[in-house]
Amino acid sequence: MSLPVYATPHQKLWYYSFRVICGLIFFFLIFPILTIIPLSFNAENFFTFTPKMLALDPEGYSLKHYRDFFSNSDWQLALKNSLTIAPWATLLSVSFGTLAAIGLSQRHVPFKGAIMAILISPMIVPLIISATGMFFFYSTIGIQGTKIGVILAHAALGVPFVIITVTATLVGFDESLTRAAANMGAGPVRTFFKIQMPLILPGVISGALFAFITSFDEVVVVLFVGSAAEKTLPWQMFTGLREQISPTILAVATILVVLSVMLLTAIELLRRRSERLRGMSPG
């Protein structure tokens, strides 16, 4: 929005100050992340910009850290585990979270606020506390140090995102549609998949993408619940920082940043589509 010609000096001062503040916030949030991208192409095994990089000399840049990532067995095992655990955790999160959101959207459910607070508590409780609780609980039932334990732990962390996004799409949902389907003989399952699911699908997919990112980037819980055989990419990055100081971490971080940006872009597009379907924004 441009500054109107009749703006007072006070309004002009606030107009430009607001943009400077937004720019500073954007800079401090984004710049540290963007710094790792050029460093991931460093031809040397350093975490800093070399003189050749600063001089934009092509010899200062290399893809060797990316080649190391795709050829090193430790990194490939971590990538394989992440690509195995994250989809299963996402599937469970979407299944449980969608059912919970639909259940909480019903008018006759008592104590909705308390139930919702409990279900989204994994987002609020510090991860170290959740991880400690999961460690003792999973040890008791014998799944600590297994892939199943890591999948269930990550699913628990992803469920709140699915509940929130699906609940948002259910706001303004026309209940007469489900009643009309029931009057025409459709059962609850058929009504859900034919009537409700197409309308809440953008929220379900958005929640799934959030759950996938949560599982793919999570490191604290997997350190408690998993074992060396279940180490994921964030675990391997943490190990690399602590023990090896390998610049390959920068290449992996760049890949994760690109992946996250792609997923967040998809989430934003789905959010806009959901608003259009619900008539909240012009097409």
TrEMBL record:
For this record, an example GO cellular component is: plasma membrane
| Membrane-related topology note | Multi-pass membrane protein
The record ties this protein, via Gene3D superfamilies, to:
MetI-like
Residues folding into a coiled coil are none
Which positions fall inside the ABC transmembrane type-1 domain? 79-267
GO BP terms in the entry: transmembrane transport
Q: Which residues cross the membrane?
A: 20-41, 85-104, 116-138, 150-173, 199-225, 245-270
Keyword annotations for this protein? Answer: Cell inner membrane, Cell membrane, Membrane, Transmembrane, Transmembrane helix, Transport
| Cellular localization per UniProt | Cell inner membrane; Cell membrane
A Pfam family annotated for this UniProt entry: BPD_transp_1
InterPro entries xrefs: MetI-like, MetI-like_sf
Q: Which SUPFAM superfamilies match?
A: MetI-like
Q: Which family is this sequence assigned to?
A: Belongs to the binding-protein-dependent transport system permease family.
PANTHER family given in the database record: INNER MEMBRANE ABC TRANSPORTER PERMEASE PROTEIN YDCV
The name under which this protein is listed is: ABC transporter permease subunit
Species this protein is from: Algicella marina
The organism's lineage is:
Bacteria, Pseudomonadati, Pseudomonadota, Alphaproteobacteria, Rhodobacterales
